[in-house]
TrEMBL record:
Biological source species: Siminovitchia fortis
Keyword terms of this UniProt record: Membrane, Transmembrane, Transmembrane helix
Residue ranges occupied by any VanZ-like domain in the UniProt entry: 13-145
Transmembrane segments: 7-28, 75-93, 100-119, 125-144
Any coiled-coil regions, as ranges: none
Name of this protein: VanZ family protein
InterPro entries referenced in this protein's UniProt entry, alphabetically: Teicoplanin_resist-assoc, VanZ-like
């Protein structure tokens, strides 16, 4: 049974990574600005002002100046996108089981993702996306660290296969 549980976790992690790859890099974003030079693209598609986009979306939700789907999908989507990473990484990589190491690992990973999106023109560099992704991952990490999750999953004899 331990092997089956481990296989299910591994397969679900692979599917999650595959979905993440599609959402982050294989969309059609960026094609509208393909005639810009790289520097122009970086300038027009980057946001390094914390909470600028988040604030814009909240204002649009309050005053109704934007279709509600856009801010909700962006805010909730960016928050939820990396939440599973907060659960998977510490389970599969024991060295990332400490909060500080997890936080630094996620910051590094998300910074690389944002830069790759910018350079490949498959998205933008938005510090607000970064903030929401980090918060989601930290919530996932917090869920993984709860006693309930530990009892249900990590403390479960069927999941002892994850212990080394």
């Amino acid at each position: 049974m331990k092997k089956i549980v481990r296989i299910v976790f591994c397969i679900s992690f692979v599917f999650y990574l595959f979905g993440l790859l599609i959402v982050l890099f294989l969309g059609s974003r960026g094609s509208l600005w393909s005639d810009l030079t790289m520097l122009e693209y970086i300038r027009y598609s980057s946001n390094i002002v914390p909470f600028k986009t988040i604030n814009t979306y909240f204002k649009a939700m309050v005053d109704g100046s934007m279709n509600m789907d856009i801010p909700v999908k962006n805010l909730v989507g960016n928050f939820i996108l990396f939440l599973p990473m907060g659960i998977y990484l510490p389970i599969f990589f024991r060295k990332i089981n400490k909060a500080g190491i997890f936080f630094l690992s996620m910051m590094t990973m998300l910074f690389i993702v944002e830069v790759i999106q910018l350079v490949t023109r498959r998205g933008s560099f938005d510090i607000d996306d970064f903030i929401l992704n980090i918060l989601g991952a930290l919530i996932g990490f917090g869920i993984m660290k709860t006693k309930t999750f530990q009892k249900l999953c990590i403390g479960n004899p069927q999941l002892k296969a994850f212990e080394r």
